[in-house]
Amino acid sequence: MNREPKVAVVTMEGTNNEFEAFNSLKYAGAAAEIVHIKKFESGARKVSEYDMIFFPGGFSAGDYIRAGAIMAARIKAKLLNDIESFVEQGNLVMGSCNGFQVLIELGLLPNTQGKWETEAALAVNISNRFEARTIYLRVRKNNCLFLKNFEDGEVIKLPIAHMEGRFVPKSQSILEEIVRRKMNVLTYVDSMGKEADYPWNPNGSVLNIAGLCNDRGNVLGLMPHPERVFFRETESDWTRGENRQGMGFRFFLSAVEAIKEKF
Amino acid sequence: MKTDLTGAMRYTELNDEELSEINSRMHLGLSLEEMLRIKTYFTNLNREPTELELQSLAQAWSEHSGYKSSRNYLKKFIFGLAKEKIFYQGDAGLVSFNDKLAVALKIESHNHPSAIEPYGGAATGVGGILRDILSMGAQPVAVSDVLFFGKRSKKGFPSPRFIEEGVVAGIRDYGNRVGIPTVSGGIFYSNDFVPNVLVNVGCVGIVEKDKVLGSSVSKPGIKLIIAGGKTGRDGIHGVNMASSVIEKGKEDATTVQLGNPIVKEPLIHAVLEANDRGLISALKDLGGGGLSSVIGEMLLAGNVGGSIYLDRVPLKEMNMRPWEIWISESQERMLLAVEEKNVEDVMDIMDQWDVTAAIIGESEAGESEAGDHLKIFYKGEAVMDLDLEFLTSTPLYYRSYRQVKKNAETTLPRYPGNLNKILLKMLEDPNIRTKEFAVRQYDHTVRGSTVIGPFSGKVSIEGPTDASIIRPSWDYNEGLAISHGVNPFYSRLDPYRGAKAAVDEAVRNIVSSGSEPLAMSDCINAGNPEKPEVMGEFVQMLQGLRDSASVLEIPYVSGNVSFYNETGKTRIPTVPTILITGKIERLDHSLTPDLKGIGNPIYAIGPPAYEMGGSLYYRMLGIKRSPVPDSDPNVLKDRKNRFLEAAKEKLILSSHDVSEGGMAVALAEMTIGSGIGMELDFSSFSLRADVTVFSETQSRFVVEVAKGSERRFEEIMGSQAMLLGYTSENFRALRGEERIFDLSVEKIRNKWKVGYQ
Q1: Does B727 touch chain A if contact means CB atoms closer than 8 Å?
Q2: Å from A9 to nearest chain B CA?
Q3: In this structure, how many other beta carbons lie within 10 angstroms of the beta carbon of residue A261?
Q4: Contact A233 B474 (CB under 8 A)
Q5: Which value, to the nearest 10 degrees, does the dihedral of the CA atoms of residues B569, B573, B576, B577 take?
Q6: Mean pLDDT, chain B, whole residue set
Q7: Facing residues of B464 across strands?
Q8: Mean per-residue pLDDT for B156-162?
Q9: How many domains does chain A have?
Q10: Calpha distance B512→B515 (Å, rounded)
Q11: A225 flagged as catalytic
């Protein structure tokens, strides 16, 4: 079947990366739609109508309680079962920044116990301030469907912009499971590609974890923003570099290709 | 039955003393002359005014809303310059970007609120400027903020540090939450801003040309819908506060509005969606003066009258008096004029985005004899019935002015030797060194369209940029450049040259990024306009803005004047902050200051001269009087055209404008983001070495040119280009026999990064 993958970019008041997420998906060949969470709640839209759900960054409901908490609570109230079965059927879910926080709150990530429980938190950065800059990441692609267009071990650069991004697992055993199953697919590193402390690890995440992918490889959450560097000309150091594809393009193309393979 | 909420008050029989007493008790901020004008009006009508009518007139006639001291002079000097390039003017000004798109821009001050309540003042400054752009039907794409703080504390006022932290946090929390990147700006430190800090906030937006919205309602039966935040008591009399000097212990924080970006964010979506579907006839944002200033202007502009029902306005507080609802400056509110057939669709869109909205009135046919009237009702009773012509006829003043001639002789200090040491000291000066501690807290990549941000270079060692470039639409490979220009140190010594230098710097910054300037917006900050010497400076400054823009043919499409920035004996210099936008035809032609490779020639564009007044060098030496650099817009225009020709041919690899600290600081800053140094020789300049490298003569650039392109570059630039040397490992420079600079690039970077790393 040769149709465009249908992707919902879920918004509510305060989510604010839907513009670049929508455009990144569209320019990567998906039929993207910005869907207010109300439409899922009222039944005007169904999760099962889509091939992929994207949770964009921002400050859902202002994040005045805890990043992502209110959006996650709204989803839990009415949509959690739909999303869980959506994931179980092998469909794709991605969340960046605030969207990653939502996926953690919902228990979609890391979900090492398979019980869809909240197993970790994204706490306030160790610098105790909002950090907006470009960071280096090492890719360990494992079976992650969103990383198909990357080399294993490749060092890439992505922008971050967050106040709460320090990954903290609920227990040591959860952390061990994450490592054992190679779920920590994106790790903060220094310019030489080695794991290093702040400022290279911009928030103080445990094991320099920047992004997690679930066991099955179809749910990715990450603090950095691939949707903001779809084009090479939006990478912060592009005026110094060679002409090549944008980093964000590679993420979204991977997702679109993975969906099309299932058709 | 008339209740105490709606009844008329005794006014027309009062004597001057009693009128003054009412003026201060009701916080009207009117002059006696204006109070008497109101008295005559109601005496002729043979009735007494209501409380709401008086408050409404006070709002409309305030300096803040009415520009009563500045409008005559603005008209005379800067309105109408390069008019043919203006696409449309309203709450913001627009210029054409390409066949399909127009750019909206505006910069505005939020000085008084930020001095009283830094966090809320700065946050709502961002909120207000976003609404100005939105009210044109445009999508905001970038925020810029230029801040001016004091250095020492003054008894009875908050400390400069407290104010700075509050302002930065306010901009951060509002801008980041609403999801518009903060990409440009500046922070200045000078004791001229104790305790009167300045917060100048700008915004740039993009709109399809056929979707630009006006703000006039020109036929009867159009429904007026208020959308967004609910109305409360916050920000009552904000415009009156902004129209008077700040006195110790007299600040009233209830005059500062409370911002809520999480209401604003969906409001932007909802309004733009309704506009996209062609459902809005006219649109205006509720800022200073609230409903009172917006509705009158909307109806008057289209020669109609109207009725408003205040009890339909959604409130967030109980027991508000009608006049409080009418003049409240609660944030995140827009007024939409919508044809009856579209009302249902508009209300549906608002509901989809969870935005509160209510129909509060409608336009009516003008009453021919008495003119167009605005009638306001509260719970069935009329609380206002004023002729719009009178309500909006702000008295305009030609305030008297006196121009103080400040003679300044050229002073030349003893040659200091050791320029290395001076350069390092300059790099760590608070006005020069990195502002990353603040700017890295602002999200500058949201919307995924930031091509050049506030910093550039290798990741983790980035240096400064001259202008930011945004890709306003992913469908086009064109860039929208954004920057600013201002120099409070020049303006303090010479308001005329200071204004010209502000325009010069703004234009330089845009050109240095490889872009052609399109349009400017001016944010003018000054002291008490009732003082002739302040008006004298104001007029000199306007003459400067005019002389530069008329030669350069770049219009001021919008602007803002903030007077009364003074306290006791201290007042700020009369200083304009220029927000500027430009266009680059191809994104991959964008230029940044970080050096690109070893062995490339470095050129200066334009020679230095003996112009040191207000310069960083003379400020460091404590020399107070000396002529300020004088920008020649003809020279700037010629260099701009040559520069852009060379940039189009891709001869220039990196570029930086020469501003504070002269060529020395500009060249040193080019090494920061690259780790690449340069070997330079300044022997060909006839001026003394320190003047050569630290002079702040205007209209100049330093550039790295691609190796092998020297001949073509020199051909285009003519005598303007002077070869200084070549990129290499360290930062070294000769002047005759003297080695004036010998520094490692790490040392330069570490000094510049003081306070951040």
Answers
A1: no
A2: 14
A3: 9
A4: no
A5: -90
A6: 92
A7: B455
A8: 89
A9: 1
A10: 7
A11: yes
3-state secondary structure of B56: helix
- Residue A54 in domain: yes
Q: Contact at 8 Å (CB) between B565 and B90?
A: no
The CATH number fitting domain B593-757, selected from 2.70.70.10, 3.40.50.360, 1.20.120.420, 3.90.650.10: 3.90.650.10
- CATH number (domain holding residue A99): 3.40.50.880
Tell me the H-state helices in B557-709.
616-621, 633-648, 662-672, 689-694
Token code pair at residue A52: 């992929």
CA B467 to chain centre: 15
pLDDT, average across residues A152-181: 96
Strands (E), B442-515: 450-452, 455-456, 463-464, 468-470, 479-485
Query: How high is the pLDDT of residue A70?
Result: 82
Say if the Cβ atoms of A233 and B459 lie within 8 Å: no
- The one-letter amino acid code at B614 reads G
Give me the interface pTM, i.e. the ipTM. Answer: 0.96
**Cβ contact (<8 Å) for A239 and B587?**
no
Q: Which of residues 210-239 of A touch B (CB under 8 A)?
A: 225, 227-231, 233-234, 236-239
- Counting every residue written for chain A, the total comes to 263
Question: Please, how many CA atoms are within 13 Å of residue B757, restricted to the half-sphere of its CB?
Answer: 13
- Report which of B726, B728, B731 is spatially closest to residue B746, judged by C-alpha positions: B731
Q: Which of A24, A96, A164, A239 to mutate to test the interface with B (most CBs of B within 10 A)?
A: A239
Residue B369 has pLDDT above 80, yes or no: no
* Cβ atoms of residues B323 and B237 within 8 Å: no
Distance separating alpha carbons of residues A225 and A134, to the nearest angstrom: 10
> CA-CA distances (angstroms) from residue A39 to A10, A52, B38, B353?
10, 16, 53, 10
Is B448 in Cβ contact with A228 (below 8 Å)? yes
* Contacts with B460 from chain A: Cβ below 8 Å: 133-134, 191, 199-200
Residues of B with Cβ-Cβ distance to A133 under 8 angstroms: 440, 459-460
> Is A18 part of a structural domain of the chain?
yes
H-helix or E-strand spanning residue B127: helix B118-134
CB B298 within 8 A of CB B335: yes
Nearest to B276 by CA among B213, B352, B182: B213
Q: Which residues of A touch B471 (CB under 8 A)?
A: 231, 233-234
Six-digit token string for A242: 């060679």
Section A241-258 average pLDDT: 93
Range of the domain at A61: 6-262
Q: What does the alpha-carbon distance between residue B129 and residue B136 come to, in Å, rounded to a whole number?
A: 12
HSE-up of residue B113 (Cα within 13 Å, Cβ side):
32
To the query of whether residue A97 is one of the catalytic residues in this protein, the response is yes
Q: Nearest C-alpha of chain B: how many angstroms from A51?
A: 24
- Whether the ω angle into residue B158 lies within 30 degrees of 0, i.e. cis, is no
- In this structure, are residues B504 and B698 in contact, taking their beta carbons and an 8 Å threshold? yes
Do B692 and B663 contact (CB within 8 A), yes or no? yes
Better-predicted residue by pLDDT, B541 or B58:
B541
pLDDT number for residue B251: 53
Instruction: Look at B275-284, B285-294, B570-579 and tell me which has the smallest mean pLDDT.
Output: B285-294
Q: How far is CA B206 from CA A182, A197, B513, B718, in A?
A: 44, 41, 20, 37
Which chain A residues are closer than 8 Å to B596 by Cβ?
Answer: 239-240
The band of B8, judged by pLDDT with boundaries at 50, 70 and 90, is confident
- Please indicate if any CB of chain A lies within 8 Å of the CB of B448: yes
Residue of A97, A105, A162, A213 marked active site? A97
A197 in reach of chain B (CB within 8 A) = no
Q: Is residue A1 part of a domain?
A: no
Name the 3-class secondary structure at B87: strand
The SS3 of residue A120 is strand
Q: How far is CA B509 from CA B69, B230, B581, B592, in A?
A: 32, 41, 10, 10
